[in-house]
Every structure is written in structure tokens, then in C-alpha cells.
Amino acid sequence: MTGQHMIDEPDHGHSLAEDLVLMNRLADRRRALKWFVGAGTAALVAGCGESGSDTSDTVAVVSGGTATATPTPTPTTTVTPTPIPTSSSTTACIADPTETAGPYPADGTNTSNGSTSNALTVSGIVRSDIRASFISSTTVATGVKVVLTLRVVNVNATCASLAGYSVYLWHCDRTGNYSLYGTSTAAESYLRGVQVTDANGEVTFTTIFPAAYSGRYPHMHFEVFSSLANATGGRYSVLTSQLAMPAAACTAVFADTTTYPGSATRFTQTTISNDNVFGDNTAAQIAQQTPTMTGDPTNGYVATAVIGIAR
After folding, report:
1. I need a labelling partner for 240 at 20 to 30 A (CA). Which of 28, 38, 232, 252 fits?
2. Helix H segments across the chain?
3. Would you call 296 helix, strand, or coil by DSSP?
């Protein structure tokens, strides 16, 4: 009520007796107002305490515009406030799930009937354009061009970029075969390569769109290493996982049955949800494992994806 007159006081100029009467009357009225304000405030405080879940150790009593902290008779248990979430790894990126390397990794973990069972230790594996063979052949894999950029981040440090890490990428060709394995592609080493992440945690590969083969949803494989030395030594990977090709791009690419024979039919037989690798992943994991792609089969695609690692 500061700055407002509660009652209109008449001009001074009466006798002492009249002043005494007036003073008594004013005192009575002010006592009444004080009682009224006090009662109203108590009612207000009582009303604020009706919430079933909100508790407090102190009650603010308002008097004359000043808040005074008054302890309650029986203090309740202190409730620690829940921190307000800020931009963090859980809201901006997640850790990619570990997936199988499959039967055709050529990373030294199994054998093959090709020129090597560990392409990582062979000179020439560090390259951006992985469409050509580089060991005992120079055959170039044909298919719809894809320029893929992967960004490796630390999910335990608000998705900070991880520079100096190495990514090994490999996948099948347009007929569903993997180089260094099988009878038709054992002599080839295409669609395999390693790149080192830059200051932004990024690597870029030029490759082709993989085929759909029986029993699997169209995908690419990758392994992440904490250094190039570890990658080319073929050991100590920190993550092995896979990327799922966007469904719309699959439909568009596989419509060309000459370049991708059989893929259109096989693509309809396996979905992400019933795939034996992606099928048990969460929606958030699938979203991160699916590259964002722009382009078309004629001009090729530009794709990006985040790889989250808990370091």
C-alpha cells in the first residue's frame, strides 16, 4: 500500500479535545485495518500450501511490502532441485550401438580367400575415394555415386568433435558382393578405405550406393579407431557399427534394375524393423545410423551422418 493514503485525514485546526477524539477514532480504524491485512495474508499463505507435491522449509510472510523468512514449526526434508537440462550429449547426439562386423570385414578378424584377410595393414588403404581396387587389381566399382561425410563426436563431452580418429568404411558392391571374399570378387579390394578425422571430427568418402542382398537391409559397415596407427595396425577399434541407407533413396536407386539387378525385389523383403542387425535398435539409434541424403540416382547423392562415441 506504499504511496497510497489508507484514510483521508482532515486538516489540523481543532481543539485538544476534538483532536483526542479524532486520534482515538484513527487508532481504532488503523487497528482494524492491521487485523484485516494480517488475516488476509494468513489466508493467502494457507492457500499457497495446498499443493500436494510442493514443499518448502520456510514460509514468506508479507507485511508492509517486505518478505520475512519464518521457520515452520516442523521442518520437512530438504528437496534438492532437479538440474535444468542444457544442451548435452543426450539431446544432441547419442552413442552409436555396437553392431556386428559381419563375415566380410577384411580387418584381420577372420580369413578370406582374397589377396589378404586384413586390408587395413596394406599400403594404399588410407584414401578418400574408395571406388577402385588398390591391391592386386585396379578395377573400379560402378554404381550410383555417393559422397559420404561422417562426423565423429564424443557423447560424454556435449558432442565435441573428435579430431585425429580414423574411420574404416566398407560395404558391398552393386551386385551385393564384398571385395576380398567370394569367387567373383576375391581379387578385388574396392569399396574399402580409411580416413582420419579433421579438426571438425569429419571424414569424407567417395563411394557408391550399396546393393540390397538377401536377408539384410541395405547398409554400410564402419569401424572407428582412436588413431591412424591403430587403424593401419588393424587393432584396438573403439567402435564397430553400421549405417542404414535411407528408404527413399533405396527405392529410387534400385528402380534401375540393370545397374542394381535383384535389389528392388530384395529390398521389399527386409525392413529395418525385421533386419537382424537394426531390428532391436531404438528409434533414436536408427535415426542417427541413417545418413541424411540429398540428390538422385542420375547425379549421385551427398550424405552426412554423426557417429557418437562415449569417450
Report:
1. 252
2. 16-48, 89-92, 228-232, 247-254, 263-267, 283-289
3. strand
